[in-house]
């Protein structure tokens, strides 16, 4: 045999080992992805909605009120949406609490363009007799929860008033 033949035969086992190591590395990465849960679904995106708020500061028999009109955007299901109000007071300065979810009481199962929700005194507890609802310093948030699972993320899809517009 000549030296040229010996060199050519030695190349095949080296290439085979390199290919085998590459295949093992790819298989290990694939198994790692599934074992570590990287293959789970991407987080759900919050719906995009356009809401127009009509705030009436006049203290009528029911005190101040806030109308929310869904003017356009994605369809939202009533069971995935809740209202959170903080900073609401009575006209005498007493802190009051939103007692009911106005969305559950006033909206149909599917909330689409044209749906209107009213936030008013009758939905709050802690208002002394003779006082009215005062939303002047209140903040309202519409919170969307995509699932009933405790680990799912929630999203604020609307905030009133816009923090940049508050005096």
From TrEMBL:
- Where are its TM segments located? 12-38
Keyword Transmembrane helix annotated: yes
Q: Which domain of life is it from?
A: Archaea
Archaeal Type IV pilin N-terminal domain segment(s): 9-89
Cite the entry's keywords alphabetically.
Membrane, Transmembrane, Transmembrane helix
Q: Does the keyword Transmembrane helix apply?
A: yes
Name of the protein described by the UniProt record? Archaeal Type IV pilin N-terminal domain-containing protein
